Amino acid sequence: MNIERILRAIGARPEDQRKLLMMAPVFFICGISEMLNYNGFMTLFNQRFGSEYLPYVYAAEAVILPLEAWLLSWLAAKLPKPKLMRVLYGILLGIVLFNATVLLVLQGFGLEARAYYPILFIASSFVVRQQTLLLWSLAVDLCSTQQAKRLMPVFVGSATLGGVAAGLLAQLISLAFGPEVVYAAGGLLLLAAMPNYRKVINRYLVPLSIKMEANAQEEEPVTTTAVFKHALRSPFLLTVILLMTLMPALYFLMEYEFLNVTKLSFPSEQAFSRFFGMITMVLFVLAFLLQIVSGKLMARLGASQMLTAISGVYVLSFAAALFFVGGTAALPIISVGYMLLYLLLYYSAEPSYQLFYKTLPLAQRDSYRYAAQGIAASAGIMIGAGLQFLHSGFGLSWTVLSFVGFAGAVLLFVLAWFGRRFYMRELVSSVQTIGEQDLAEQFDEFGRNDAAIAEVKKMLKLPADSAKEIALQILARLQNPNDVPELLELIDNPNPRIRVAAVRAMNLESADLHAMVKVAAFLEDPDDEMRAEGVRQIGRMKHMEHQAFFFLRQKLLDHHPSVVAEAVKAMYSFNNAPSLEACAEVIDRILDEGGESSVYICRVIAELELRNFIPKVERLAEEAHPAARVAAIDCLGRLQVVTIIPMLLEKLPLMDQEMLRTATQSFIAMGNGAVRPLLDSLPDSPPKHWNSAMSALSMLLPDDQVRTVLTDEALKRLSQLEAALGYSASLQRLGQSELAELALRRWREVRTFIIEGVWAVLTKLADEQVVDAIRRAAADEDEEIRSNAWEVLAEGMGERRLSQYLLTVLERGEEGIAVDSDSDAITQLENAKQGNDDWWREIAAAALVEEETQVGSEQQMMSRLNKVIFLRQVPYFADLSLEELGLIANIAEEHICLDGENLLERGEPNPAMYVIVDGNIELTSISAAGWEGTIGVLGTGDVCGVTSALDNTASTVTAQSLLGDVKMLKLLGENVSRLIRLYPEIGIGLLRASFARIRLLEEMMMRIDS
């Protein structure tokens, strides 16, 4: 319970726990390592080589950066993602450990190698830069979009707290050992984080990357030259690149001033390292605090205003440095400026830049981003080095250098100010092309800018309906009451989508009677969705309750149930006696009628938690109408009516797929009240029942119970599934080939249910995203992809025993254990008779008819099995499962049509469809010219009378037995229609077969025409 409270406190969910516990320590330890490395090499370089040489080192870095990017791109192209992540971590660790060894050797033997420190600086700077990118890239790859929103702040917080700990450790270590040991400690911590890092990759990234290449879409690359040319033509893109360049350049200038002032104040290495450690600790404490408020700041200011505010801080920081750089307050003032610029550059400015790229075309967005970042990174370092060189090379004073920084900050502020205007202009112009998700992310920018809103309103006047719809989406988010007059002008638009969107965008909570009357006109609109939206809007006008009640009451009698449901919800919100009484009458009437109308009312009952209607909803759960039955079960589940669980459990084996999914979700919605009944029902339950119960229990039970109770149950079922593979082989051994084929077909269906239940357990014990990727890859047609997924299962995903047993079942496929003798076969079938599946019991019993007392019942079973064996060979029923064929067989009656007898009469009603088992049927009809002729002759496996039987129309042909008696199966249309209502998948299967027959007829006609 403590862990659950902690997860809730940080905004995470229970399913995030394993990933969080594994990755947060990596970010924390690597955060410490990164800042210890940074503290160590910066202290050593500045004290032993000289901070005045920073411009030269930064210039060298600017030259190396393109080579670094090329190397990383080359590695990324050559290596799979998991291996790339391991190799990069190994390279970074190797660089740090090599440098640590060199430093400790130099310290131990009292040697001095001044020329080594620039190499140390460049190599360690590469490590710090790439370590950050590596960890964030890993986190992004492992987390789905929604999970990333929950976990990224935790990872950022872990890394930030690591920086705080690094500052404290740097101070303590430097007191006794010096900067070499500080640097080496960072390497040891990087080594300590490696096991968890590799475990994260193996457990999460390897499975996710199995199909990454197959699913990846090629993106048209955009070269740096193309971006540069585009920037010259686009003021917006040029401003963004200039901001991205100038901001780090000015930071490097402030860093240069800070390091030199600190070196003057603390000439010894120990003192410098301790002060630098203290600054690091304070810096990351501030970073942690900034993370707490950064989301609110971004929400309040937006990306463009955030950059303007950051630029203002740059101006203030350099202004303070300009006034105090020559005095005693220089160290604290410049230290504060350094910390502020560091925080704002790396923790606030970067996210703002990313929002700017949302205005670019989606297909080229990443290419523009990376190319622009490459330009800005190299140019920023070069400009920063040039600014530093003004002091180290040309000898400008600190005051003049601070003035240059101040002038640059003012230029930065001006760029940010104009960039904000360019951004809003670009955002409005791109609003018709950006995706819905991007539009939602950018929405707050519109809400703060009156000019942008004015541009959006202009889109309402454009002829294109798509532009109007986007503008209405934005205005709907704003819900500004002042927009109502302009929106009312759109209610006469011929496009119903525009009318509905306009009504949704209205805020009528304070509207006058005139507006209500205008909206009330929507209530008679021929479009159902329009009427429903009008009802919703009038329901919000609670300041005119009596008038609203008058209009809404009429809609309780609307001909469409969705409108009635909205009227009920609206009137319930008034919470007065007349409204509640009127609604109760309508709900009672609709529930009594049942059918499709009750679907919408069931949703309303669940949403409003109207428990007094539960008895009628329970009766509706027995309704013949499939949609009504599904809606009732869903409603009862959401209301946590656990009394229906026994009824649902009893009906699970015969439920269609939609009903099964709904029942499973209802069990989950019922919560703890469903746990005990489901657990008690697991032993010896039929496969479909078992699948639903296991799926629900996997969601309801805590991890420890899933790992024990459900895992043991899943292992038991997998073992039974393997044993059941011998049933088909046993029947083959006994010469029952048709029953053997039937048993194998049933085994395939059972395997689907059992393996789905096993995947549900593994999903609970592992990461949902990972399990989903492995599940799809394990069934892939590509052998290499499939074998990679199987390798992950072999390693033990979620629960080792279950994962490996599942792999055994998947690898074996349909290859059962050989049956060597008839006695072994009979033993197998005796076991099948005692099993938990009706079909295997029936098949085994049919094959083992030995006792006279069983003959009567077995003969009936054989009759059913014979029908199923026959029907599965009929093309018209080929798409049905064994269970569905069994339902058809139950309503199929044997029928004999005597020689020469008419089965169908043209123009006469036909109550049944017929499947020919043996014999021939001649089809004849009369043409428009009046002559009678033979259309065709049907034989074994053909079906006739389908259309007239199912739609209660007269037969268009005459069907007569030909050349002897005809044996057939008769299916009354009424019974077939009832089955289709109860089991819609039967209807879908028959529909596919009908389409196949239509295609065949079309091909025949084309051949005749040709």
TrEMBL record:
Q: Which GO terms describe its cellular component?
A: membrane
| Superkingdom field | Bacteria
Pfam families given for it?
cNMP_binding, TLC
Instruction: Quote the PROSITE patterns the UniProt record gives.
Output: CNMP_BINDING_3
Supply one GO molecular-function term. ATP:ADP antiporter activity
Segments crossing the lipid bilayer: 20-41, 53-75, 87-109, 115-139, 151-175, 181-197, 236-254, 274-294, 306-324, 370-390, 396-418
Keywords, sorted A to Z: Activator, ATP-binding, Membrane, Nucleotide-binding, Transmembrane, Transmembrane helix, Transport
Record's keyword annotation contains Transcription regulation: no
Residue ranges constituting the Cyclic nucleotide-binding domain according to the UniProt record: 876-980
As for membrane topology, the entry says: Multi-pass membrane protein
Q: Where in the cell is it found?
A: Membrane
Q: What is its main location?
A: membrane
Family per record: Belongs to the ADP/ATP translocase tlc family.
Identification of the protein by name:
ADP,ATP carrier protein
Species for this entry: Paenibacillus endophyticus
Organismal lineage: Bacteria, Bacillati, Bacillota, Bacilli, Bacillales
